[in-house]
Amino acid sequence: VPHPLYRPTKNKLVPCVDQLCTSLHGGLSKNHKCDSPKQQCDYEVKYADQGSSLGVLVNDSFAVRLANASVVRPSLAFGCGYDQEVGSSTEVAPTDGVLGLGSGSISLLSQFKQHGITKNVVGHCLSMRGGGFLFFGDNLVPYSRATWVPMARSAFRNYYSPGSASLYFGGRSLGVRPMEVVLDSGSSFTYFSAQPYQALVTALKGDLSKTLKEVSDPSLPLCWKGKKPFKSVLDVKKEFKSLVLNFANGKKALMEIPPENYLIVTKYGNACLGILNGSEIGLKDLNIVGDITMQDQMVIYDNERGQIGWIRAPCDRIPNENTIHGFEEGYCWPQFPSSIFGIQNEECAVNYRSNKE
C-alpha cells in the first residue's frame, strides 16, 4: 500500500457482542456467531473479481474538518484487513483500502449521521481531467436542478440502485429488456449484462465511422484506431453517438452517456469501449454504472429522502456552498461483496494477534 500500515492497539478491537458487529454481519449474510464476549469481531469480504479481505472490526477516533472549518473527532468503526487477496484485474493500483459509503447501518455515512455530524447524504464529482471531490451532508446539493429518482430497494442489498432503465443509442431504443442498474464508484469501468452489452456492440459496429478501424489492443476487448493515434477522448468523440439510460422510476429521469463517458484512449493511441460484459465476471443480470460513466457529473445519494440524483458539473473545482455555479451543464473492479461472515478459523485470529504484536 502507498502509506504506512495502521496498527491498532488491543483496546481498539470491537468485541463480537457489540451492536456494531451484529449490524456488520446482519447487513449481508445474517450469519453471526459469538462464542465468547471477549471474542473479536472478524469479517471476510469477497468481491466480484474474486479479490477478498480478511480482517477485524476496530474503533478509533478521526479528525474530521467540517465546511465551517471546525474540527470534530468522532470515534468510528471500520474494517482493519490483515489478509488481502488481489482479484483478477490485470492492472492493480496501490490502494490503502475501500471506503464504505453504502446505506447500511455501519457504513461511514450512517455513523456520521448517528454522531450528528452530517445528514445521511453523500455525493461525488469525478473530473475527466483527474481528481474531483467527495462530500458528506447536503450543503452542496443542487436539489432543484438535479435529475432525481427514488432509490430502488432491490435484491442488491445495500447497493445504490436507481432501478430499471431502458437503453438508447443515438436516440433509438436498442430493444433490450429493462436493465437493473446499480451505481458503483468503486468500479472504474461500466458493466452491462450480456444482452444489452451485445446490443450496444452491434449498434456501435453498425454505426462505425469510415475513418475508424477495429484493432486489437491489450488494454480492453473492443478498440478502434484512427488515421493517427488519438491523444484524448476529445479527438474521437465526434465519431460516436450518445447512450441514454431512461429510468422507469423517475419523471423524465434520463442519464445521458456521451462518448467521452464510455470511451477510453489507451497508451497505444486507440479508442476503446469502457463498457464491459459483466456476465463474463459473474455479475449475471446486474448492470453497473462505474466511474468512467460518472465523470463530470455530480452524483448524489440522499438516504434522508431515499433518492439518487445527478447533474452535469465541472468536477475539477469544488463549488462554494453559498454560490453553487456551473451545474447547468490504475483500475478498480466492481467493489461488490458477495459474502461477509464470521471467521471460525483460529489461525486467522492468531495471525492477527502476532502481526499486531
Automatic annotation (TrEMBL):
InterPro entries reported in the protein's UniProt record: Aspartic_peptidase_A1, Aspartic_peptidase_AS, PEPTIDASE_A1, Peptidase_aspartic_dom_sf, TAXi_C, TAXi_N
Any one GO molecular-function label of the UniProt entry: aspartic-type endopeptidase activity
SUPFAM superfamilies per UniProt: Acid proteases
Matching PANTHER family: ASPARTYL PROTEASES, EUKARYOTIC ASPARTYL PROTEASE FAMILY PROTEIN
Protein name, UniProt field: Peptidase A1 domain-containing protein
Ranges where the Peptidase A1 domain occurs: 1-311
BP terms from Gene Ontology: proteolysis
Species of origin: Aegilops tauschii subsp. strangulata
Pfam families: TAXi_C, TAXi_N
Family per record: Belongs to the peptidase A1 family.
